[in-house]
Structure formats: C-alpha cells, structure tokens
Amino acid sequence: MRRLIRACYTGAGGYSYARKADDVAREHGFDRVARLASNENPRPPSPAAIEAGMAALREGNRYPDERASALAGALRRYHGDYRFVTGAGMDGVIETVIRTVVEPGETVVASTPTFSFYGIAAAAHGARVVTVPRREDFSVDPAAFARACREAKLAFLCSPNNPTGDSVPIEAVEEILEGMEGLLFLDNAYVDFADIDYRPLMRRYENLILGRTMSKLFGLAGLRVGYAFVPEWLEPFYQKAATPFALNSVSAAAAIGALADTDQVREARDHVREWRQRFLEEVPFKVFHSDANFVMIDVAPHTGDEAAERLAAMGVLVRSCTSFPGLGDHYIRVSIGEDWENTRFLEAIRNL
User: Fold this and answer.
1) What residues make up the domain containing 35?
2) Residues 236 and 98 in one domain
C-alpha cells in the first residue's frame, strides 16, 4: 500500500524535531536536563492564563467560537485596531494562508536558512518552492528576494530569523513589498524579544501578513495558539479556507488571560534579554547577535551534531542546526532557559 503515499513523503524530509528531554536524561543518568533546544518559555503560563483555561474547560462539551472572536478582541486591545485571524499554532495559520491563495504548481518563495515548515507546508499543497539564500552574514538581500518573488503568489520571511536570530530592517521589508505583487508572510514569532516593530506597515501595504504566536513570550507552546495580522480584504477568504474550529476554546481563553498579564510578559522579556547578553559575552565560541529568545553559536571545529551530543552528555539539550538547509554543519541553537539551565549550559560549553 506504500504506493498510495505521495512522492514528497516517501523519501527524506519532514520537520526535524529536537530530542526529548526525558530520553536524554535517561540515557545519561540525569534527574533533569537543561531544555534549551526548542525556543520555549521556561516559565509556566501566567496564573491568569491557567485560570481562564480552567474555566473554559468546564464548557468543553461545546464547540468553540469558529472565529475566536473574544481572542480577536483581546488582540485588538493589546495591539491596536488591526484585523486578526487565528489558528492552531502559527503552523496552522501558515497552512491556512497557503490553502487560501496558492494553487498547485504556483510559486512560493522562502529565504534560507530558516524555519523549514514554510517549504514543507507549501510542498504539501503542491506548490513549487523557491529558496533565496541569505548573504554570508545571514542578512537578507532585499533586491534579490524581491526578484525571486516576481512570479510568486506568496513568500515567507522570518524576522527575527530562526535559527540565526537576526532581524530584517524595516526598510528592507518595505523594499521587498514594493517589488512584489504577491503576499509576504513576515513571521514574527520572536519579535516580542526585539526592538523592532513591523505593525505600522499593516496600515500601508495590502500584501503583508504578520504572523505571531503565543508559544514564546506568553508561554503557551503546549496550547498551540497562533494568530496573524491580515489585510482586510484577505480575512473573509482565510475564514472560508480555515479548518473548522481549529483553535480550541481552552487555548483561546488561556491566550486572553496571558495577554492581560503584563507583569509576567515584562519579566519574561527582561529575563531573555539579560541572559542573551550573558551568552554573547561568556560563551567561548562565536555567538551571533540575536533579537530572539535563543542564540546561534558557531562551534567549529566541532560539528553541530557532535556539540549537541557532547552537551547532552553533560545534561544540556540544545539544537544542532545541521537540519537547516543553507547552513554549514558547525552551528547549534541554544534557547534562553531558567537560571539553573543557563548556568549549566555555560559550564558545559566551556568544557566542550
């Protein structure tokens, strides 16, 4: 029956996951390991998020609001008067946007190295995926990217970028938007940790989508809450293409609670910025500037896989970047964790 499987899934490929912390702990004899591989918020969700989610669970026998209207209202209170759509994680938003605008055989563009799911999701919908390599310093060449987008229905650009951590200047994003006729999906999963704001561009460009997530700063990775700023013309078509009831009522309620807890948001952001600077100063390998809740490190002469394995043996779980197309084999990505996790990592990396 294997013949029934689509060709794009029979070979190598698919999303590359980090190793499980429990597996590493068991293998190397640790009670707990530092979980620094998945760009998670190490703190539990806000008490306000937990309380709101628990209350919503009492009505779990009912289908959720198909448009998550209450969450959209909370997002407007938090961000301002924009149009929002939601999904089961930003991955769900990405898939729905592709389903809304891309016909089989049409072109989707992505800047690489970057989050692999753009290409995976586009290929799953029969799109032709074109990748545009970043410069040697991992910055984006806006003219080259815009040229590649001339025949594209949709393009993906991640800023701050995963795994490199750098942000695309606003002027470069404007140049790209001016030079393309299709839609630009600007993935802002990590922008809450940066000093850059792309939201005003939504007032000026009708071909821009800003993707966001509640998984990082707001600590709701396990609840899968994604959303996006969209132009007004796109919203009704997105809703037609969306999977029915994709965002469950517990997750939506928890997200509303998390958005209201400004103290926890501020503390989480400050924690990341403090430790990000310490990593930059104290890691004895080249650490790239990052605007996200992680840093990328060049561990040459080790490979990324070697470094990740040796750090795992010291109780620290990090991400080897060998699965990111367009990167060399000597990089790792390290999330900002709890204080004890970050301290253990600094001790381990010095012994690498």
Assistant:
1) 2-44+263-350
2) yes
